[in-house]
Amino acid sequence: MSQTPKTSREPVVTPARVVIGICLVAPFVAMLWVGSYAKTDPAFIGIPFFYWYQMAWVLISTALTMIAYKLWQRDQRARKGGAGK
């Protein structure tokens, strides 16, 4: 009998995937931890901390999502390149 090699589709934890996870979870933790930013001081150009902190996280979240996406693309290319060899 001939045996076909089993292809493993198990999830692989790599450093890149850990960084991707951290990039995607960080905004949720920052926004759900309301006690850390539920205050008015320090104000920034007259805007209370509560508001500018949240708006800053909009930009930070965008950057972290872009980083996660680029890392994911690189990881997928590496896995496809490694599987063909």
Please give a structural write-up.
- Keywords: Membrane, Transmembrane, Transmembrane helix.
- InterPro entries: DUF3311.
- This is DUF3311 domain-containing protein.
- It comes from Streptomyces griseicoloratus.
- This protein is mostly helical.
- The protein has a domain of 49 residues.
- Helix content is 62%, strand content 0%.
- The chain is built from two helices and no strands.
- Helix 1 runs antiparallel to helix 2.
- It is elongated.
- It starts with 14 loop residues before the first helix and ends with a helix.
- The model has no long low-confidence stretch (mean pLDDT 86).
Task: Offer a concise description of the structure.
The protein is an all-alpha fold. The chain has two helices and no strands.
Provide the fold topology.
Elements: H1 15-32, H2 49-83
Helix pairs in contact: 1-2
CA radius of gyration: 20 Å
The ordered H/E elements are HH
Low-confidence stretches: none
Approximate shape: elongated
**Strand tally, please?**
0
Strand content: under 5%
**Average pLDDT level:** 86
Helicity, as a percent range? 55-70%
Distance between the termini: 25 Å
Distinct helical segment count: 2
Major beta-sheet overview: none
Structural class, please? mainly alpha
Protein name: DUF3311 domain-containing protein
InterPro entries: DUF3311
Transmembrane segments: 12-38, 50-72
Keywords: Membrane, Transmembrane, Transmembrane helix
